Amino acid sequence: xxxxxxxxxxxxxxxxxxxxxxxxxxxxxxxxxxxxxxxxxxxxxxxxxxxxxxxxxxxxxxxxxxxxxxxxxxxxxxxxxxxxxxxxxxxxxxxxxxxxxxxxxxxxxxxxxxxxxxxxxxxxxxxxxxxxxxxxxxxxxxxxxxxxxxxxxxxxxxxxxxxxxxxxxxxxxxxxxxxxxxxxxxxxxxxxxxxxxxxxxxxxxxxxxxxxxxxxxxxxxxxxxxxxxxx
Length: 231
Ligand code: CA
Hints:
The chain is an alpha/beta fold and 231 residues long. The protein folds into two domains: 124 residues, Rossmann fold, CATH 3.40.50.2300; 94 residues, Arc Repressor Mutant, subunit A. 40% of the residues lie in helices and 21% in strands. Helix 7 packs across helix 8.
């Protein structure tokens, strides 16, 4: 899986090392040298993972992490802190701030690559490409097939991605904005009511096997995929 990575790091040596190794591992990496640049980049697009250096000129990595975690738009993006300090206290502070993981410098690029994978498996299971099955509804990303109670269901590409996201993030309410970011990506400009249109189509597609009720409308908040109810 190719992962879009944003590296926020001011040391040229580490920038080069990571750019080389992460590209070799098949990932796409964008490098920014400080928090302000990173924020500017993030306004235009969300990466799959942020690698965030602790000590940055200007706003520190910890402050940037805190800021991203307090903003709904950035909450789904996993953050791995890069720190030169080995102190337990700092690691705890990093995780308290909302980082998903931390790695202490110097680290091996290979270790970082496996940490990235682990964080994504935990935070963004829709990126790992494994089949998901909930309540007799089965989605296989590899073959792009959906089955309900063993029978094939026909879904358009957007409905497929939407269902994949829901099934890998069940029992949570997702706002329309979050769904747009996660399912449509932010390169495209779409209005929030587009989400409603595709939700309607998705429900229709799930009706033949009786799974339409798994997609619930949460008034004033968004949508939720919830198993075991409404069938
Ligand atoms: Ca630094």
